[in-house]
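Oligopeptide:H+ symporter
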Amino acid sequence: MTTTTAAATAARMPPQIPYIIGNEGCERFSFYGMRNILTVFLMTSLLMAVPEDLRKAEAKEVFHTFVIGVYFFPLLGGWLADRFFGKYNTIFWLSLVYCAGHACLAIFEDNLRGFYFGLFLISLGSGGIKPLVSAFVGDQFDKRNRSLAQKVYDAFYWIINFGSFFASLLMPLVLKHWGASAAFGLPGVLMALATLILWSGRRKYVHQPARGANPHNFLKVVGTALSSGGLGLAIAAMGALAGAYSLSRMGSLGFVAAVCLAMVLVMGFGGVGAWLQLDRARGKHPDEAVDGVRAVLRVLVLFALVTPFWSLFDQKASTWVLQADQMSKPAWFQSSMMQALNPALVMILIPFNNLVLYPLIAKAGIRVTALRRMGMGIALAGAAWIVAGVLQLWLDGGEAVSIVWQMLPYALLTMGEVLVSATGLEFAYSQAPQAMKGTIMSFWNLSVTIGNLWVLLSNVSVKSPSAMDVIHATGYSETACLMFFFAGFALVAAALFGWVASRYPMQDHYRD
């Protein structure tokens, strides 16, 4: 047998992958089916008791609070899987919680508390399985066939958008013609189907067992490093004080924003302090664990610089939908249906990039690395919001703007998404040592929580008298100023990401 033939035989696609991808397609339909009509439903039904001039801000706050929950609970899911149940069992049981959440939305369409409880269950279920499904995909590969992993992650991301595309087109029409119970109930049926598909492949998967109580896990090593005293502990203490101050501002910031900001401050300062004296943990913890923590902390710097991208990306389901309401469009077309353009473009761009664009760039002698893709993606998101800001200026000036114009910022944002999100999944998995796969995938999802936190904080900050004075001095509307602010936020982050990425040492942590 020749070397080429042997390599081809070894690099075989795992037969269990279709079960995971089928599960993901149905689950994503269920998630985006309810998510993409959430802002419209809140504005037109559930929040009608809120005065009209405050309803838009309230709907945005509820939407982004929900998204924060979805991307916060990966920490819980990762911990349960690593410590007790393993990835498959945790995914399965949290999927049942997820189904219950959809049922609550369908049943309590006119009950605020019941509906919000359903959103909580969906954020718990969807968020809890998020880091596990993508890491579960990576578990099915080893170093013999890891060359196929990026293709599967691209297919994984393609099927996510396949489900999102049909959900974005159909659910606004179902909501309009058949009501909220049907519009929120149908995604629940798809989530039940997703759970059934996952269960059907249970005997075919590679199951990495739960590691149990690990005395050398991420938090234990960080705690040992900080408890040794010195400058690192002082920096961590500063983070704790800053977090306590954030909690004291709960009245003005809101509960979710204050708690999340406190968490970010504690994590940020604590991470810096641990990095400075991580070597003090050696001896009490094996070198492998200490080096693993250093690898995770190094990646977290890059993840922090990705958070502005998520600030921009997730507002397409809130700020851009509200902008679309102001635009001229056919009578049958619902504003939230415009979001279908995003997954449609993703399904085109992923194969185009892999089959055409990246090979052409490689032939030109330019290395298309994961980090270069991600940095460019953040910059493209900033460009998309510059265009959206210009459209808002036209609307504010009284011009009749066709919704067709929104296709341009959607195209730029979607190209940025493909470069950041699809690439980031495989990058995050490959950079984590085996013992910290769940940890680093949870942090990847947590970056989305922080991105939505920036949205909540900006919406609070813009209401301050000093901010309003600056906005009035520009002559632009509050919405337009926020759009240009977020564009600049992303462009600065892209520049910093490129600088940090140029100094980042790539790792390869696939199993042997």
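thats it. Residues 74-107 form the longest helix (34 residues). The two ends are 23 Å apart (CA to CA). bye
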